[in-house]
Amino acid sequence: MNIISIIVKEVKQNLRDKKAMAMMVLFPVLLIVVLGAAFKTQFSDNLKIATPKVLYSIEAKGPAAEYLKQFINAKTIPKIEYTKIDDVKKAKELLVSSTEYSGVIEMTEDNKIELFKTDKGDMNLNGGLLESMLSGFVNQFNIMVEVKKVNPKALPEILSDNNADYTKISSINKAKKPSSLDYYAVAEIALIIMYAGMTGLYGMSSEKNSKTRGRILSSPVRKHEFLFGKTIGGVLITMIQILVVVLFSKYVLNANWGSDIFTVLLILTSQIIMAISLGVGLGFIFKNENIAGGILNFIIPVIVFLGGSYMPVESIGGSKVFEMITFLSPVRWVNKSIFEVIYNNDYSKVLPAILINIGIALVFLAISSLSFRKETV
Predict the structure, then answer these.
(1) Residue range 9-23: average pLDDT?
(2) Is-contact 102 117, C-beta < 8 A?
(3) Which helix (H) or strand (E) holds 233?
(4) DSSP one-letter code for 105
(5) How many domains does the chain have?
(6) Mean pLDDT score, 327-349
(7) Is 187 found in the same domain as 114?
(8) Strand 53-58 and strand 103-107: pairing?
(9) For the ranges 20-29, 72-81, 124-133, 314-323, which has the lowest average pLDDT?
(10) Contact between residue 55 and residue 105 where contact means Cβ atoms under 8 Å apart
(11) Which residues does residue 114 pair with via DSSP β-bridges, in sequence order?
């Protein structure tokens, strides 16, 4: 009963602190919205290419010229807009003076094909695309020459089939991926949970500073009841704050939390227990709340950076050693396990993530308990 009373007192006391409550709810929401919008393009798989515009001139006659005309009139992906022009010199001048055209194709009377392309801005990408397609045309034409040598009768049928589709582009094992909003909804909640360690730290020190800890412990309340009551109270109040953020991001911002929200919340709860216990433990280790707060403010950014809460760790690159270092961060395990559950229905990392969080929590709670026993009221 004493522990329950301490828990209730802790929850009520935190609920009265409107500023802290608002910060823990509004700050992650703001981060989700801002970072989700700022990094939207980095999380997009769609590369939008403007329709390349190409000028062409065909002076040659014969099969090669006819085949090039068929190539120009064929439906391609991506679509290319071809414009015939007789004055090649003028076409080259337009290519230099304007950003409208990506290239010029010239086929001279001796069947020689030349491509002139620009390197201006996005046109450079289109020019490279055009070069690749034209190279493909030359290879196809060379194949036609060989077909003519072996079976000339088949050539007219092949050349007349303008709609033949000899290429199929498929994506193998294309995994569902989070958008920027989906990613930062998870990552920023994991970040703000780490700052809940301050709740654990100042929850214990505030009682000492206000001289209420001595009065509480002079009552029938034992030290372990006081310690665990304060810790559980901090965990519960943080769970309420995080639940509000999760629900807001899910139903207002439409972030994807998957179909198994229970498992996701279980992982986040284990992180909350770890963060609160970390704050409580540092308070007992360093005694001085300002020093403990400084240490906590120093290690949290490192932990969340390695965990991918500022940006995806995969986008940073680096060596295998750096990748191994990232897994020293409990936030990395939290984020990784949640994304695996949401997008791959993979639960293999859930138990390790929870055990890591609970293991860290037990270590710091044990330190707190041993230190608290030695302290005089």
Answers:
(1) 84
(2) yes
(3) helix 223-251
(4) E
(5) 2
(6) 92
(7) no
(8) parallel
(9) 124-133
(10) yes
(11) 106
Q: What is the pLDDT of residue 83?
A: 86
Longest pairwise C-alpha distance within the chain: 106
Residues 276, 150: Cα–Cα separation, whole Å: 79
In a domain, 167, yes or no: no
Which residue(s) pair with 116 in the sheet? 104
How many other CB atoms are there within 10 angstroms of residue 74's CB atom? Answer: 12
**Residue 75 and residue 113 in one domain:** yes
Nearest to 233 by CA among 210, 261, 207, 262: 207
Q: Which of 237, 197, 218 is nearest to 2 (CA)?
A: 218
Q: Does any domain span residue 170?
A: no
Length of the chain: 377
| Helix count and strand count (H, E) for the chain | 16, 4
pLDDT, tens digit (0-9, with 9 covering 90-100), for 283-316: 888 888 889 889 999 999 999 999 988 888 776 6
| Top-confidence residue, 153 or 332 | 332
Q: Does residue 139 lie within any of the structural domains?
A: yes
Cα distances from 232 to residues 28, 135, 186, 354, in angstroms, run: 22, 68, 23, 17
Q: 117 and 209: one domain?
A: no
Q: Are residues 9 and 59 in the same domain?
A: no
* CB-count burial class (<10 Å; 0-12, 13-18, 19+) for 364: buried
Q: Do residue 262 and residue 120 come from a single domain?
A: no
State yes or no: pLDDT of 2 exceeds 90: no
Residue 367: which residues within 8 A CB-CB, separation 6 or more? 281, 284, 285
Range with the lowest mean pLDDT among 63-77, 139-153, 170-184? 139-153
pTM over 0.70: no
Q: How far apart are CA 216 and CA 6, in angstroms?
A: 9
Residue 62 shares a structural domain with residue 130: yes
* Highest-pLDDT range among 217-221, 224-228, 241-245: 241-245
Q: What mean pLDDT is reported for the chain?
A: 80
Give the residue numbers spanning the domain of 207.
2-43+178-374
